[in-house]
Amino acid sequence: MAVNRRLNTDADFEEAMNGRKRIRVFQDNHQINNGGLIIRFDQKTIVIQSSVSDLAYHDRNECEFFEIKM
């Protein structure tokens, strides 16, 4: 069963990005992205890549990010 770990700090995002951890993204209590990898982040935006041509840009303040732990 998968366990979610909430990502809050720059260190959390850095660890998930470097460890190539799968990410779930929620906005307004709805899952909007599942299973992508963080490829870039800054203070405002998290960039998630789900496939070769699928990039999603998520506002850091409007979304919740979780690492999927297996």
Quick one: biggest sheet? 6 strands, antiparallel
Coarse shape: globular
Terminus-to-terminus distance: 6 Å
The percentage of residues in β strands lies in over 45%
Tally of alpha and pi helices:
1
Q: Give the number of DSSP strands.
A: 6
Physical arrangement of strands within the biggest beta sheet: 1-6-2-3-4-5
Structural class: mainly beta
Question: If you had to describe this structure to a student in words, what would you say it looks like?
Answer:
The protein is mainly β and 70 residues long. It contains one helix and six strands, in the order E-H-E-E-E-E-E. It has one helix at residues 10-18, and strands spanning 3-7, 22-27, 30-41, 45-51, 54-59, 63-69. It has a six-stranded antiparallel sheet, covered by helices on one side. A hairpin with a 2-residue loop joins strand 2 and strand 3 (30-41). The longest helix is centred in the first third of the chain and has 9 residues, at 10-18. The protein is globular and about 30 Å long. The protein starts with a strand and ends with a strand. The model has no long low-confidence stretch (mean pLDDT 95).
